[in-house]
Amino acid sequence: MIISLDTGSSVPIYVQLRNQIVTGIGRGELKAGENLPTVRQLAQDAGVNTMTVNKTYQILKAEGFIEIDRRRGATVCRVQKRDAVFKEKLESELELLSAEACLKGIDREEFLNICDRMFSCMKPEAAEV
């Protein structure tokens, strides 16, 4: 997985890193149990401060996307069952995206086609239930 950061973006670097790692997991580019680069290695590869990568990893851990072990480092977690908190977050973010799409002249069918195309690119490992 290649990380590409936009230093001119208003989105903080740690959020860009988080989003790209989550997308990589969702697409199946990063598999459950796979080790992520060390904080130092990712910081060097991405050209950012180690504290930025550390913050990203702590967020990913809190969200349940990765586990961090002192000996094994950061590893990708298995796909999880959804919960009520995530569903609320999803609905809120989709509401905002829907409003923005509507205001930019994208009709319902086109919006749903875009959503379907993006969702069909996701190939995470099957959830353990």
Given the C-alpha coordinates, what overall shape results?
globular
Number of strands: 2
Question: CA-to-CA gap between the ends?
Answer: 27 Å
Beta content:
5-15%
Summed over residues and divided by their number, the pLDDT gives a mean of 92
Can you tell me the residue ranges where pLDDT is under 50 for at least 5 consecutive residues?
Answer: none
SS class:
mainly alpha
User: Sheet bearing the most strands, described?
Assistant: 2 strands, antiparallel
Number of DSSP helical runs: 5
Round the Cα radius of gyration to an integer and report it: 16 Å
Percentage of residues assigned to helices: 40-55%
Please list the strands of the largest sheet in the order they lie side by side.
1-2
Description:
Helix content is 53%, strand content 6%. By secondary structure, the protein is mainly alpha-helical. A hairpin with a 3-residue loop joins β1 (66-69) and β2 (73-76). α2 packs across α3. The relative contact order is 0.14. The mean pLDDT is 92.
